[in-house]
Amino acid sequence: MDIYLMLKAIIMGLVEGATEFIPVSSTGHLIIAGEWLNFLDKDKRDVFEIMIQLGAVLAVCVEFRQRLLHTVQRIQTDPNAQHLVRNLFIAFLPAAILGLAFHHEIKEYLFSSFTVGIALIVGGILILLIEKFVPAGKVQDIDHISAKQALQIGFAQSLALIPGVSRSGATILGGMCFGLGRQTATEFSFFLALPIMFAATGYDLLKARDLLSLDDAFIFLIGFVTAFLSALVVIRALIKFVGQHSFAVFAWYRIVFGILILLFFAR
To answer: How is residue 216 annotated by DSSP?
Structure first.
């Protein structure tokens, strides 16, 4: 086994786990990291990224296992469980429909370093504006999110189809714009990651099934486990962070990183 290939797989897994649930765009970082590391050929790298995204979303299942288990067990009798599932379905629909409709065009025309750099900068500026001008949301519990707010968050999530926007950033900041408290928006973003990421990775795996090979299984496993463990750490840290801080630090990171990307790849 090539030790350098293993190290690259670990780095890619760390990048995915570290960035999937904070508003800096995991897809954008994976595009940059993959190009910088020259990791696998493009087709296999795409499949690898699908697998490590599954590792990251599994971390959400583990961290919120009690709430998820409670929801599944009591879906037929508990109004709060029914309310959550309904809202997740509503919020899931816009990105799912648009993603299916424009999947090929997005992959073909938007997956580039230039797109990522621009999206990072624009997203960072929007975060600063939202933090400064949007009043604190009144909804402090995900059980109190309305169907209208869920749909609005779903359309906000659709912006993350553009590489560099950040799914978590779009849903969290979108939630804050539509009346959710910071903590509530963050928690709902975690839950919303489950249907959209399982659906997206399942669809991509189905399309790329001919590229799956036992020869790559060990490298894929390394990335999967690394992404799972690092995502679990980040989820727990982010839950604590949002209770005491704004997202301004992520905004400035996005702006600086976006500028560096444009300068580097413009050479």
So the answer is: G
